Amino acid sequence: MAKSVIVINGPNLNMLGTREPEIYGAVTLKDIEARVRAHAQQIGLTAEFFQSNLEGEIVEAIQKAANKYDGIILNAAAYTHTSIALMDAIKATGVPTIEVHLSNVFAREPFRHHSYISPAAAGVICGFGAKGYVLAIDALADIFDT
Ligand code: CA2
Fold first, then answer.
1. Where are the domains of the chain?
2. Is CATH 3.40.50.9100 the right assignment for the domain spanning 3-145?
3. How far is the centre of ligand 1, averaged over its atoms, from the C-alpha of 54 (Å)?
4. Which residues lie across from 101 on neighbouring strands?
5. Shortest-distance atom of ligand 1 to CA 81
6. What mean pLDDT comes out for the span 68-73?
7. Interacting residues of 129 by C-beta distance below 8 A, sequence separation 6+
8. Is the pLDDT assigned to residue 136 strictly greater than 90?
9. Does 13 sit in the ligand 1 pocket, CB within 6 Å?
């Protein structure tokens, strides 16, 4: 059976393409989903998508992934820098998780340089815009194959 991936996006990412294109690009979340779905299919994976502005809903989505998906791609947005709950959820599921950020968080304000997600993640991709999600699919495919 094809390995499956859930792509989880956090707060405000539903507004992509409408504001701050100089930081986050002009693509919408729907565009990103279409690109990721197409690439996943090309390499024999399936991808599903979830976005929420609420921390608890994201915790629940990560918990539910434990018995349903083989990998997680997570852009926790601002919760990256604040949420011990998300870190604990990722550790508890044991599902390989790739942390993605559209922007290069290390070239931005110091408060964006710390991530609670990174210690629980298999790897981190940042600064490549929407392409980062596609790279994360390839990273998970490599993990699945090893
Ligand atoms: O670069 C990323 O992907 C971030 O996760 C985006 C978060 C930010 O808090 C992180 O430090 C880095 C912010 C997402 C906000 O998304 C917007 C989209 C359109 C318009 C305004 C905000």
1. 3-145
2. yes
3. 14
4. 126
5. 11
6. 98
7. 24, 25, 27, 102
8. yes
9. yes
